[in-house]
Records
---
Amino acid sequence: MTTEHLLKAENLSLGYKERTVIEGLELTVTPGKVTAIVGANACGKSTLLRSMSRLLSPRKGQVLLDGKEVHKTAAKELARTLGLLPQSPIAPEGITVTDLVGRGRHPHQGVFSRWSAQDDAAVASALEATHTVELADRAVDELSGGQRQRVWIAMALAQETDLLLLDEPTTFLDVQHQVEVLDLLTDLNRSRGTTVVMVLHDLNLAARYCDQLIAIADGKVHAAGDPADVLTEDMVRAVFGLDSKVITDPTSGGPLMLPIGRHHMVASAAGELPEHRS
Amino acid sequence: MSTTALRTPDATTLATVTLGRRRRNRRRLVVLSVLSVLIVVMVAVSLMVGRTFYPPMDVLRVIMGQEVQGASFTVGRLRLPRTVMAVLAGACFGLGGVTFQTMLRNPLASPDIIGISTGASTAAAFAIITLGLSGTGVSAFAIGAGLGVAMLVYLLAYKDGVSGIRLILIGIGIAAMMQSATSYVLSTAGQWDLQEALRWLTGSLNGMRWPSVVLVAVIMILFVPLLSVVAKDLNMLQLGDDTASALGVRVDRTRLLVVIAAVGLIAFATSATGPIAFLAFLAGPIAVRLVGPGSSMLLPAALVGALLVLIADFCGQYALGTRFPVGVVTGVLGAPYLIYLIIRTNRTGGAL
C-alpha cells in the first residue's frame, strides 16, 4: 500500500495581477480517496489546482503536503510525490507514445543518469494501466482525443506519485471516453491507493466518481464532503446560479442533478420552480 | 494485493517498451556516428583539396607541427584555422538555434530569425567599421548586442508570459531594423572593405586567423557544459511550462541558463564569422528529421551545423567559378526551407 499523504490548503489566497481569484480558502484532501472539485467557469478551480502543485505561489496562506509547504519544497522532490496533469499539455511533434510516457520519469532521474530498468518497468506498467500498450510505438499526434488523454494519464502514472492532480481530464472527450478515463482513475485509486484530485466540468460524473466533492464559489469552498451531501439543489443554485432538481441516480444510487431551464419543461417540473423564476 | 500486480508489468509489455527504446537509441547512435564520420571526412577534404592538392601525409605532418614546403603556409595558416572555425561555428550556430527552437517550441524561433545573430553582427560591424576596434573589443560588442536584442525581444513579447508567435514576429521586426543598421554602417565603410563587409551580411570564413578560432573554442568550453547540464530540463519544456514544472523542472531558471548559453555561443560565433545565413535555423529541424523526435537535439544539431558549414564553405570556394562566402551558400539552402516551414507551420502548428 502506498503511504498516505495529507494535502491541505490553509487560508489560501491566489490571484493574477490585480485580480484575486481565491481568497481565504481552507481545504483538506482526503488521503487515499478520489476528490472532485467543481464550480462555475472562472471560479478558480484550475488556479487552485496549479497552486496545490507549486505552479502558482500563494499571495497569502499556504499549501501543505504532510505539514511541509509545497512552495518551499524542491521541485523535483515534490514531483516524486505529487503529479499534475494540466488541462492542455503539449506533445512534441512526432514523439512516440513510449517516449512521451517516459518523460514522466524525469523527477526520478539525475542530470546525467542513464535510463534504468526501473524506468522501463514504470513506463510499461503505466501503459498497461491505461490500456495503451498497443499504441506504444505510435506517434502521439496520430492518436484520437481519447487515446491521447489516456497516454497523458500514462505519463502522469509513470511519474509514480502517490498524489495525482488532474485539470479537467475529460474535456473535449466523447461521453464514452469520459467514462473510460474516470473508470481508469478509479481503478488507479483502488489498486494503487493513489489519491486523485480532479477538476471536473460535469457535475453528475463528478458526483458519481468521487468520494469527496468540493464545490468552489466566490473564491472559497462552498461545500465539501460526501457527494450525496454536497450535490443538492441549494448548492447548485448558490454555486452555479441554476435551478435544478436532484434525484437519485438509478444506475449508481448517488445524486443526479437535472438542470431546470426556461424551455422544454414538463408542467410538474415547471411547477417546482422557485418563486423568483415563475 | 493488486497494487503489486499493477506495478509489475507484463513481460511482453516490458519487452515492447525496452525494445522500442533501444531501437530509437540505436537510430540516434547510427545517425550521430555517420554525422561524425562525415565531419571527419569533410575536414580532411577541406585540408587537402584546394588550388593545390596536398596528400594526407603532408597535411598530418603540418598538423603535427613539422615544416613542409608550401603546405605549412597553405594548410597550416590558411586552411586549418578556416576548417576548425567551420566546425566550431557550425556547432555553435546549431546548438544556439536548436536551443531556442526547443525552448520556444517553434522552428521559426531560431536566433537568426528573431534578430539575435543580426544584432550581434550589426554591433560587430559597427565596432569594426565605425569605431575601428578589433579582436576582443569586437566580440564584447557582439555578445553585448546579442544579449541586448534577446532581452529586448523578450521584454517586448512579454505579456502574461511569452507566446512563441508574438516573440517571433517582434524578433523578425527587430532583425529587419538591425539589418538596415548594418547596411548603413557598411555604406560608411571604404570600398576596399567589400570582402570584409560581406561577412557582416551573410557570414564568411575568409581570412580566418587562429586568435578568433581560439576565442570561440574557449567560449564553447564554457557554455557547452552548461547547456548539457540543462539539456534534459530543456527537453521537458517542450511539454509546455505547466507540465514541465509539474515534472519537477524549474522552468524560469532553466530558461535563463539556456538563453545565456545559447546567446553566448551565437554571439561569439557571429563575432568571428558573421551571421552565417540560416544556419541556426536549419540545423535543428534537419537533426530532428535524421534522429527522430523524442531525445535531446543538442548534439545532433551541433554535428549537423558543423557539417553544413564544412560542405557549404567547400562548395562556396571550389564548386563554382567564383568564390562565394559560406553564408551565400547556406542562404540559398535556407530560404526555400524557411518558406516551406512557414507554410507547414501555418497548416499544422507544428513544434520542431
---
Amino acid sequence: MLAARVMRSARPARTTWFAVTVEADPSELSGPSRPDALARLAERHEVRVTRAPGGRGSEIAVRAADGRTREEVRALKQLLETGEVLVVEGQPEGHRTVLGRVARPAFRQLTRRGAR
Amino acid sequence: MRALCWTGVNEVSVEDVPEPRLLNRQDALVKVTASSVCGSDLHLLDGYVPAMLAGDVLGHEFVGEVVEVGPDVRERRPGERVTVCSIIGCGRCHYCREGLWSLCDNTNPNPGFQEKLNGHASAGIFGYSHAMGGFAGSHAEYVRVPYADVNAFPVPENVPDASAVFASDAVPTGWMGADLGQVGPGDVVAVWGCGGVGQMAALASLRMGADRVIAIDRFPERLDMAAALGADPLDYEHTDVLDALKELTGGRGPDVCIEAVGMECHGTGAQYAYDRAKQAVRLQTDRGLSLRQAIQACRKGGTVSVLGVYLGLVDKFPMGALMNKGLTLRSGQQHGQRYIPIILDRMSKGEIDASPLLTHPMSLEDGPKGYELFKEKLDGCVRAVFQPSRS
C-alpha cells in the first residue's frame, strides 16, 4: 500500500495529449475546410483545435496518441505547412550489414516515433 | 554511382550505391562538384552519435550543379551552380519564417531520438545520422536536395568552388557565431578552435568591426592561417589561456567568446584527463573543456557563443560563473539560409575568401585517406574536399 503510494507520488501522471502547433488559422481546420487527414484522425481519437497565442497559428492536440498516430499528426502538420510529407525512404545507401538489416525496422520505429 | 559511406567506428569506404531520385515534388537533384569534410563528421566517425547505420552516405558541406528539379520547384533550374545549406529548412514553419532555420519543425522525419534526449528535435542535416533525419550525404556523385527553392543558392560566376563549398557550412556557421555575439566595433573577441568554422568566426568578427580577435589552437599551421586573416594566435599548449586573455584585455576578458570546438575537445592538464576518462566510460557524452574555459574567460556581462557540436551532457558546467558574471550564452546549429546569400555576395565582391581552408583537394576515391589526414591533422590538413569528377 505504502509502496504503491510512494510510487504514485514519485511519478506524476503523464498527460494523455500529444500536441503540435501548425501555421494555419483555426478556421482552416474546422467545418468544410477541415483537411481529410484531420477528419480521419478525429474518427479514431479525441481531437482539440485551439488558436495558438501570438499569431502562431493553431494548436492541434490528439488524445491517447500512439506511435503511429504521432507520426500521422506530424505528417498532417507538414502537409498543411509545406504541401507535402518529406520522404527519406529510397535514398542511396551503401552495403548494410546483416545486423543493420535485421535491426532496421525497430531502429526506424525508435528514431521516427520515439520511446514513450 | 560512387559514394563515401560510414561503415563502422573509424571506418569509411567508397562504395557503389544507387543514384538518388526525386522523392518529393519540391526536391532537386544536384551533381556534386565539391564536398568538404567537417569537424562535426568526426563525432560520427568516432561513434559518438549512436544513430548511424553501416552504409550511411556521409557529407553535408557541398557545391554542385542542379540537374533535375521536381514539379513544385519554382526558383531553381537545371544548369545552375548552387551552394546547398548543410541544414535543411522547409521555409514555411514558424521557425524558418523567423530565420531560425536549424530549428525547422518539418525537415527531420526522425524526431524521436532527439525528443527523448533534448525535449525537441532540430532540423534535418545531410549525411548526419538518422537522428538528424537520415538524409543521404554529399560525398557522392549526386545528392537529393529537399525543399530546393529555400536550401540551394545560386553561386555568382566569379566565386570558385574552392570558396563556394564553404558557404554551405563553415562560413555561415562562423558568421553566425559572431552575429550571436553581436560583435561590433571596439570588441575583443576570443575564438576557441582554428578549424574551418573557427577561422571563419575570426574572419566574420573582423568584418563586423572587432578591434581584436584572439584565435586559440595548438596546431602551428592553423594558428598561422588565423594570423594571416588578421587574428592574434594563442597556442594553448605553451601559454595559459585564461592568464593570457586577461593580460591581453587589460584584465577585463574578451567581450565575446566563440567556442568552435565541440564535444571532442582536446586540452592539457588534469581537467582534460578527467573529461577523457568520464567520456570513455560514458559517464558524460561530451567533453566540455573549451566551453568551461570560454565561460571562465569571458568578461563580466559578455556573451559566450557556442558553435561546436554537443550531443548530450557536459560534466562540471560552470553555472556559477555564468550566473554571477551575468553572461549571455547563445548557441545553435547554423541558420545558414539567413547568411548564405550575404556571404556569396561578399565572396563575389572579394570581401570573403574561404579558399585557404581547402588544403587537400582529392578525388572521392581518396575519401578514406582524406578523413585520416583530417582527423589526425596530418600534412597541415585543415579541410579535405572531395571532387567526384577528379580521378
